[in-house]
Specification:
- Its cofactor is pyridoxal 5'-phosphate.
- The chain folds into two domains: 4-166, D-amino Acid Aminotransferase, Chain A, domain 1, CATH 3.30.470; 177-344, D-amino Acid Aminotransferase, Chain A, domain 2, CATH 3.20.10.10.
- Helix content is 24%, strand content 30%.
- The chain has seven helices and 18 strands.
- Strands 1, 2, 3, 4, 5, 6, 7, 8 and 18 form a nine-stranded mixed sheet that branches.
- The mean pLDDT is 97.
- It binds pyridoxal-5'-phosphate and 2-OXO-4-methylpentanoic acid.
- Residues 73, 236, 302-304 line the site of 2-OXO-4-methylpentanoic acid.
């Protein structure tokens, strides 16, 4: 793929934040972006790295009406040796292609897009923050851009990648969050788009998140959309339970996002000789386990959320304390190792980390 390069003028240059402390997740963007277009009969074309700027979209662009889109989220890290690295980036673009299949979007060439991403990252390398726990969040997205409001599959698309220096996703950092089980709303159903990273899933979950926040909770825990018993995932992360020393996470049934952090936790757990299980697990089993003391930890896993311990689960108006409400040893071990691999402090036994 040939990438046209238009760099920003000295007057347009922005300055990265001097410190990431106090910078809200995902509101600061770097100097450049990558864009590429797709059209029926032409395929992907017009690949370009250019100054970060608003998009020109016709108000009839199909994505604005019918949400035909997919997106991804991954991070670039500054390792202890000063090198910039990516964590399992191919998995993100492979997942993007799975989302794209479901949303009738054109697929990407994973290797080509990775080359373009690295070119963009090298250009904006001064934006990778170096304070502990910070990174450069990478947001690729594909939008349906055909100018038509009849309902059909678009014949034109825009793919872009933007970059945002970030610290912790939750203001709590690596401290326990309070999660409310959603009884009223559901996120995904079999045959739906729950497994896809597409905007509508997030738009549809906003009301539940808003109501949970008003009650003092950080996010919601979704139950399955049919029986409303089986645990699925949290708003922006997959969920794990430590039950009788085993690591348990809901199995992928098509309605939850197959998280790359989730997959990495499962692989690390197996490497350490822990018992890891992907099963269907009900909210009642978890709450009973909390009462009996067999469920000792709950934590979430995601790119933005990293490993986030859960201190309180609320269900039907009742708060259930997890352990002592503090971060547990298993969540700590996964957090330390995962971030250790990402920042080059720990050995990378699987070759997950890749130089930019
Ligand atoms: N579940 C949802 C709904 C998400 O938005 C995310 C974040 O991307 C995850 C899970 C975790 O996925 P990953 O680990 O690939 O970031
Ligand atoms: C991520 O973890 O990358 C996500 O996409 C979550 C997003 C809602 C910020």
């Amino acid at each position: 793929m040939e990438v046209k390069l238009t760099t920003i003028t000295p007057e347009q240059l922005k300055t990265p934040p001097a410190t990431m402390s106090g910078v809200v997740f995902g509101v600061v963007f770097t100097d450049h972006m990558f864009c590429m277009e797709w059209e029926d009969g032409k395929g992907w074309h017009n690949a370009e790295i250019k100054p970060y700027a608003p998009l020109m979209l016709d108000p009839s662009s199909m994505v604005l009406h019918y949400a035909q889109m997919s997106f991804e989220g991954l991070k670039a890290y500054r390792s202890d040796s000063g090198e910039h690295v990516l964590f399992r980036p191919r998995e993100n673009f492979k997942r993007m292609n799975r989302t794209s299949q479901r949303m009738c979007l054109p697929e990407l060439d994973v290797e080509e897009v990775l080359v373009a991403l690295k070119q963009l990252l090298r250009l904006d390398s001064g934006w990778v923050p170096d304070e502990a726990g910070t990174s450069l969040y990478i947001r690729p997205a594909i939008l349906a851009t055909e100018e038509a409001i009849g309902l059909k599959v678009s014949s034109k698309y825009l793919f872009f990648i933007i970059l945002s220096p970030v610290g912790p996703y939750y203001p709590q950092g690596f401290n326990p969050v309070k999660i409310m089980v959603s009884e009223k709303y559901v996120r995904g159903v079999p045959g739906g788009v729950g497994f896809a990273k597409t905007g509508g899933n997030y738009a549809a979950s906003n009301l539940a998140e808003k109501e949970a926040k008003e009650l003092g909770y950080t996010q919601v825990l979704w139950l399955d959309g049919v029986e409303r018993r089986y645990i699925e995932e949290v708003g922006a992360m997959n969920i794990f339970f430590v039950i009788n020393d085993e690591i348990v996470t809901p199995q992928l049934t098509g309605s939850i996002l197959p998280g790359i952090t989730r997959m990495s936790v499962l692989e690390l757990g197996k490497l350490w000789g822990l018992e890891v299980k992907e099963i269907r697990i009900t909210i009642d089993e978890v709450l009973n386990g909390l009462k009996e003391g067999t469920v000792t930890e709950v934590f979430g896993a995601g790119t933005a959320a990293v490993i986030t311990p859960v201190g309180i689960l609320s269900y039907k108006g009742e708060d259930y304390l997890i352990g002592s409400g503090e971060t547990g040893p298993v969540a700590t071990r996964f957090y330390e190792h995962l971030t250790g691999i990402q920042y080059g402090k720990e050995k990378d036994p699987f070759g997950w980390v890749e130089a930019i």
